[in-house]
Amino acid sequence: MKIDAQELERLAAPQPRMDMYSGIHKALRACMADALLALGRLDADDAQDVAAASRRVLDLLDICASHLQHENDFVHRAIEARAAGASAAVAHDHDEHGEHIGHLRSLTQALQGSAPGGRAVLAQQLYRQVALFTAENFRHMNVEETAHNAVLWARYTDAELAAVHDALVASIPPEKMMQIARWMLPALNPAERLAVLSDIRGKAPAPAFEAMLEVARPHLTAGEWAKLARGLGLPPVPRLVAA
User: Fold this and answer.
1) What share of the chain is helix, strand, coil (3-state, %, to 5)?
2) Angle of helix 47-70 relative to helix 119-143, nearest 10 degrees?
3) Same structural domain, 54 and 80
């Protein structure tokens, strides 16, 4: 049998490992960017605009607080079980992030309750603080995706990591899962999106799978939805177009 150079290269390439961070971190980056943009273009003289932007920031903070707890309870516990001390630096980051979340929540609530004359100053303060929070979290997530994954991959099989991930996901209440899915599914690339929804389809009740689709659909382009529908073997729908 003759194998050409490209085939040899493909066979020699390392296979992707189970990455617990990838999907949720894409969701967090998207949600952070959305909240920051909402604050940046906020009309401080428009009460409805202030209310909407504030709600987006508070939603972001709720997601971030839950995410910190999930990582502490499941991912860090797995790291410490086989590499004692390896999660210490990131755990310290988490403590600081928790404090920052509390500060941002207080600033947001102050903006919500402020008189019209004071909104512009508070909005600018909140915008800058969310920008700093976003920048720090982008740095932090890169450490987790590189250093923490290296520790996990050296000490766990993919099957073991999948079990940790499944236990983490099972601990999330349905309403919180929908909130996360709204940001994660649109942020994934087509192959990742199909893999996530195929996994959900195989493990969750049909209504839960259908709810995930309904959460994702408004935030996908027609082409993205077409690829997803084809991959899942769904029947054509009115907005489905060839991709």
Assistant:
1) 80, 0, 20
2) 30
3) yes
Could you count the other beta carbons within 10 Å of the beta carbon of residue 25? 21
* Lookup: tokens for 133: 């929070």
Q: Tokens 């290296």 map to which residue?
A: 150
Q: What angle do CA 84, 19, 102 make, to 5 degrees?
A: 70
Are both 167 and 215 inside the same structural domain?
A: no
Q: Are residues 34 and 84 in the same domain?
A: yes
Q: Which two tokens stand for residue 31?
A: 């949600």
pLDDT tens readout for residues 143-164: 999 999 999 999 999 999 999 9
Q: Do the domain assignments include residue 181?
A: no
Q: Which of 157, 163, 196, 173 is CA-nearest to residue 75?
A: 163
Q: Are residues 68 and 145 in the same domain?
A: yes
Q: What single-letter amino acid sits at 231?
A: G
Q: How far apart are the first and last CA of the chain?
A: 37
- DSSP state, 235? P
Stretches where the chain sits below pLDDT 50 are: 1-3, 7-8, 11-12, 238-243
Can you give the residue range of the structural domain that contains 234? 188-243
- Whether the pTM exceeds 0.85: the reply is yes
One domain, residues 195 and 128 = no
Please check whether residues 31 and 76 belong to one and the same domain.
yes
Distance in angstroms (rounded) separating the CA atoms of residues 139 and 158: 25
Number of domains in the chain: 2
